[in-house]
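WARN retry 2 of 3 for item q-0093 after timeout on previous attempt; input resubmitted unchanged.
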Amino acid sequence: MSIQELPAQELPAQELHPASGADSPGEAAHADARDTEGLSVWPRSARPEPHGDVSVGGVSLAEAADRFGTPVYVLDEQEVRERCRTYRTAFPGADIVYAAKAFLCRAMAHWVQEEGLGLDVCSAGELALAVTTGFPPEKIVMHGNAKSPEDLRTALRLGVGRIVVDSASEIARLAAITPAGTRQPVMVRVVPGIAAGGHAKVRTGTDDQKFGLSLTDGSAQHAVTRILDQPHLELVGLHCHIGSQVAAVKPYVAAVRRMVGLLARIRDQHGIALPQLNIGGGHAIAYRPGEEHLNISVLAGRVRAELEDGCARAGLPVPRLTLEPGRAIVGPAGVAVYRVLAVKRTGAHTFVAVDGGMSDNPRPALYGVRYAPRLVGRPSCAPPRLVTVVGRHCEAGDILADEVALPGDVRPGDLLAVPAAGAYHLSMASGYNLVGRPPVVAVSDGIARVLVRRESLDDMSRRDVGL
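OK item q-0093 returned
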């Protein structure tokens, strides 16, 4: 399993089994085997190897750490592609739009385009990267709660397919800069009054947070009226996003029901049937064995049934559906690999310090996400003990995994691999302590190649321009 570096075009794409859960007897048996091996939340290509190693995409993680250094993000290209296909199969006739905020680089944009997905961006930076990679702007959705003038101007200049309006002030701002003789397609982000999500900080479907326009106080209906009065804006549909790490189907069904109700009121008040409905993303993945994830096949069936039944009752044509998965496509495809720097026993606690931390994964500090690190690169027969895996940064809250079982002989120089690390790691990484952000290495068919290189001290120094 040697590591090679090849340009992107030389990496072939190949079929894998769906990575969204065990929906058949064969997949269930495979899932049981992965549970036994402790790999149930790893990429489906992950395999235990001799001498305690694990391979992903046919590439040894220990070899990848030696070749590319640590910390390093290893991303399974085929897992990403197959998860894109799983969504397209589950939702035929819908627009599947990858949420770039989870993780974006040129290769990622290229993969999702090749798999027939659109792209959801939240800034001029994400938009420009995608378009300069060759992503069709008409397949891009732009939204965010506080779009800057530059965000809106860039979206108009590059010709994005849809802009999601998030506030009343944005309507006038967008209408004022839309070129004469054109009409920009827009959607209204509606707050449906539904609480869902894995943590209070990622619940976006209720009135007590910053996103969208309320259904309950009439703000959403007022925004619809204002947009319809703007000759340069074309209202094409409604948008909602209820939260992140949502593991249950029921909140999505409830959101569809409320959105269909609003579509009917808009038809009754304005005499128009909006042709599109975007129900966002936020689909949960498992970060540790035994955790729940959202079953995409079940979601598709329930959402489609509610949408068709609701529209039939209201006498509405069924709008074209859009979904915005991000984490559920790229999260399970990534593994972060760290090297242990120190092991410290303080009272009843054992701290295992690694060469990364909150600068490459702030999620545990932000909202208490828990991971399942694994020793890789050498065998161990030592009984497990509970340890806390911490980072190298000058913060007491720099904890990557609290109270997790690792072999009792873990020592400096060892490698720890953290699965389910593909989403919201590099995209939220910082320059804290000037450590530098890790590289992203794609693996497929035994071949590894750098997608995003490691951030160097020279990179960071160049931004510091004066004394």
